Amino acid sequence: MYLRKVTLILMISMVASFSIRTLGTISPQLFTISRIIKATGLMNAFFVLSHLLFWLVFYKHYISIEKATLKKKCLLAIIGSFSVAAIYLKHLLPVFGINIHFPQVLMNPYVDALVPIMGSAFHLIFFTAYRASLAPDEKLALNKPVLSIIVGIAIFIGLHLIVLLNFLATGRFQWLEHMPRVIAVGTVPLMIGAAFSILFFYYRFYCFLYSCVRRKDNHWDF
Predict the structure, then answer these.
(1) Does an H or E element contain 128, and which?
(2) What's this model's pTM, rounded to 2 decimal places?
(3) Within a domain: residue 221?
C-alpha cells in the first residue's frame, strides 16, 4: 500500500518537475520573477525528495522481502539518491535566504559535477541487476519497463557528462539549462526522451503493484 502511494507521488512530482525544467529551458525569460523561481525550486525539491522516499520505501517493502540478494545494490541507489538530494538542497536553500554551513566537501564544485553521474551510475548498476533477478511473473510485466529505465538512466549519464566536461573546460559549474542556448535547447529532446523512459518504468511498476494487491495469494506489504 505504501509503496504504491509513494510510486504515484513520485510519478506526479516527476511530470511536474520535468515539465517546468523543459519550459524554463525553452523560455528562460519566464523564470526571472522571484516568486516563480522559488515555486520552481520547491517543485524540483519535491521531486528530488519524492525520489529518495521511493527508494527508501522500495527497499523496505519490496527489496528486503522479495529481492534480498539485491540489498547491497539497492543501498547504493539510495546513497546516490541521497547525495543528489543533498546537492540540490544545498543550492535551493540560499534562494529562500536560508544559509546552512554544509560540510566543506559538499562546497567543492567538483562534487556538484560528479555526484549526479555517481548517483545515476549507482541506479544503473541496480536496475541492471534487478532485470536479471526478475521472477517469471515479474518478467512478463516488468522486463521491458526495466530495460526502458536502463536506457533512460544511460541517457542522463550522457547529459551529466556534458555538464562535467563543461565544468572541466570552463572551471564553472552550470546545469544544462544554464549553458549556451544551443546546448540547453539542443539537449531538451534527449532529456524528454530519458524522462519518458524512466516514467514508463514507474508507471508499469505501479500497475504491477496494483495487480499484485488484487491477487489473493499476495503477501507483499505494498
Answers:
(1) helix 109-132
(2) 0.90
(3) no
